[in-house]
Specification:
heterodimer; A: 332 residues; alpha/beta; four-stranded antiparallel sheet; 12 strands; B: 314 residues; mainly alpha; MetI-like fold; 2 domains; 78% helix
Chain lengths: 332, 314
């Protein structure tokens, strides 16, 4: 059995800000097996993107610092890897897609150049071959009139087209791991599903692992095999996708589920009001003694406020960080 | 594209009309009689009147103005009172000094400021950045004539590497002429560079925080490629704007520095012409400078379009 394509163990990332030091990622562990899609879910500001950026060594400098932990790509620790080795891995073996395709593409360089760049950098292709390969990929991701787009600039394309370009750009070197940070958030719903099915198709074709970062549980349900729910830098719950949707344990996970608009009606035929999780994600500099979710949790009790819960396994592959595990009667 | 040119051409003509009118009016009301200056204080009233008539100075304002303008449109440049040759002749010969000097100054400023600005931005808040900003502040506070004099003291008097002033002429010695222009060009350029370096730094700082820079790193590109290709090209638009304005200022700055270095350039020509009330020279040189500034700014428009595809010429 090969080493998993990505294995994050006990990763802790600090963020140094004028207001103080905060912990953006707190003892996070997760594994992406070869060809597997893992969903990393949570609200904005819970440390998802920071986790993603630390994999490629791209956390904003000089604010972010990995305090400890390890990130292994196919068994190789990326945190101790030489910067040149890390650069070689970026874009060729681990590729990344970002949320906002408008700002993530360079406005003054042609589409062709931006898609061909990784090929010239990593595969040593000359310009002609790289552009030919880039064109093939743009056609593969079904970019309309791909040949004409080579010499176009990002502002001349629509949002969906730009995200196709981003995907082609990430795929050209046939990476083994794709990190997709909110790949569909900025897109229309119809375009969203097109992009998701495109990603699924490419995953099957290349056999790559995907770390899918999103706040959208609907996207996760469609794409992922396993889901990791993150809050305030910590894993709160982790399970296979079916289990998570059928038996969510953590009050935070349940809150997220109830925040999905479904248009349901109650037994009297009235529309059920969409639930929300009260309050906001804590600022990362805020220190909390007990459970980090205790400030917003509907089922909170004394233990939660004073003691920090650890991640416990409740059944094969289903892990939860919650004091309710020890005291199930208190559940609401 | 041709519409763009037509529009710009019309603006240029309107602008030159206003500049010509302004220059002419100012010189008209300015005290100091050219005839008196030419003939000296002891000239008789009769010879003065004769000379005034000969120069057309006895005509009313509008006659003098229209005579001049229609002469220019017909391609007839005025004669210098002082030198007795057509002003275009004088402009051509002094431009052969000021032109290369301005180009050298801008070249020097760009070669100094852009790499240093990028360096400062990529080393934000570190000692290198602080050092660059310190010298830029110093440069901003330095008058260029003082820098010019300092250079003369160091490079000409102390070390004797460059001439202290004067200009041999391109036909006499190309190398000698080039050498004569280096100190003034560096003095002019250094001051421009201190503005440009700040601008480059802040533009680069903005750009380096953009999402597409993160994308470029995530693609595994070399740091050099990310900064100089993905970053610099985006940061260049504000830099070009200021560069265009600076070329205009350079012509004004030339007046001072050419006097420090005794260079027979455009600035010195107009400076002396004002003192001698050589009105045709003053008028036409000022008109020429105005046109040059406007044309340079049009060239900047083209540079924008070349750098940023979102910028359309219109």
């Amino acid at each position: 059995m090969n080493a998993p394509v990505l294995e994050i163990d006990d990763l802790t990332v600090d963020f140094h800000m004028p207001e103080g030091v905060g912990c953006a990622v707190d003892h996070l562990s997760l594994t992406v097996e070869n060809g597997e899609t893992i969903g990393l879910v949570g609200e904005s500001g819970c440390g998802k993107s920071m986790t993603a950026l630390s994999i490629l060594g791209l956390i904003p400098q000089p604010f972010g610092k990995v305090r400890f932990g390890s990130i292994r790509y196919a068994g190789e620790n990326l945190l101790t890897a030489h910067s040149e080795r890390l650069r070689r891995i970026r874009g060729s073996e681990i590729a990344m897609i970002f949320q906002e395709p408008m700002t993530s593409l360079n406005p003054v360089l042609t589409i062709g150049r931006q898609v061909a760049e990784p090929l010239m950098e990593h595969k040593g292709l000359n310009k002609t071959d790289a552009y030919a390969e880039a064109l093939a990929w743009l056609e593969h991701v079904k970019l309309p009139a791909a040949r004409e787009q080579l010499s176009q600039y990002p502002h001349q394309l629509s949002g969906g087209m730009r995200q196709r370009v981003m995907i082609a750009m990430a795929m050209v070197c046939r990476p083994r791991l794709l990190i997709a940070d909110e790949p569909t958030t900025a897109l229309d719903v119809t375009i969203q599903s097109q992009i998701l099915s495109l990603m699924m198709g490419l995953k099957e074709e290349l056999g790559m692992g995907i770390l899918l970062i999103t706040h959208d549980l609907g996207v996760v349900a469609q794409m992922a095999r396993r889901v990791v729910v993150m809050y305030a830098g910590q894993v709160m719950e982790e399970a296979d996708v079916e289990i998570l949707f059928e038996q969510p344990f953590h009050p935070y996970t349940q809150g997220l589920m109830q925040s999905i608009p479904r248009g349901l009606k109650d037994d009297r035929g009235r529309k059920i009001r969409l639930n929300e999780i009260p309050g906001n994600v804590l600022p990362i500099t805020e220190k909390v003694g007990g459970c980090k979710f205790s400030t917003r949790c509907p089922s909170v009790f004394e233990t939660c406020i004073n003691h920090h819960p650890s991640l416990k396994t409740i059944s094969g592959g289903h892990r939860v960080r919650c004091w309710l595990l020890d005291d199930p009667d208190r559940r609401r | 594209m041709s519409r763009y040119f037509l529009k710009k051409l019309i603006t240029l003509i309107i602008l030159l009309f206003f500049v010509s009118l302004t220059v002419f009016s100012i010189l008209f009301v300015l005290p100091g009689d050219p005839a008196q200056i030419i003939l000296g204080l002891n000239a008789s009233a009769e010879t003065l009147a004769n000379l005034r008539a000969e120069l057309g100075l006895d005509q009313p304002f509008w006659t003098q103005y229209t005579d001049w303008i229609f002469g220019l449109i017909a391609g007839k440049s005025g004669n210098s009172i002082n030198y007795g040759v057509p002003v275009t002749e004088l402009i051509r010969s002094s431009l052969s000094v000021t032109g290369p000097m301005a180009v050298m100054a801008i070249f020097f400023a760009v070669m100094l400021a852009i790499p240093l600005g990028i360096y400062a931005a990529t080393h934000h808040n570190r000692p290198g950045d602080v050092t660059v900003m310190f010298f830029s502040q110093l440069g901003l506070a330095t008058p260029e004539f003082w820098l010019g004099i300092l250079f003369i003291l160091l490079f000409a008097v102390q070390w004797g590497i460059f001439p202290a002033g004067g200009f041999p002429g391109w036909d006499v010695s190309v190398w000698g002429s080039l050498k004569a222009l280096i100190l003034p060009a560096v003095a002019l350029g250094a001051i421009r560079a201190s503005i440009l370096v700040r601008l480059t730094r802040s533009a680069m700082l903005d750009v380096l925080g953009e999402d597409y820079i993160r994308t470029a790193y995530a693609k595994g590109l070399k740091r050099r490629t990310v900064v100089y290709v993905h970053g610099l090209k985006n940061a260049l638009v504000p830099v070009l704007t200021i560069l265009g304005l600076q070329l205009g200022q350079l012509l004004a700055g030339a007046i001072i520095i050419e006097n420090v270095y005794y260079l027979p350039g455009l600035g010195r020509l107009v400076f002396q012409a004002i003192g001698q009330r050589d009105l045709p020279v003053v008028r036409e040189v000022v008109l020429f400078m105005a046109a040059a500034v406007v044309v340079v700014n049009y060239l900047v428009d083209f540079a924008y379009a070349a750098v940023d595809p979102r910028f359309k010429l219109q």
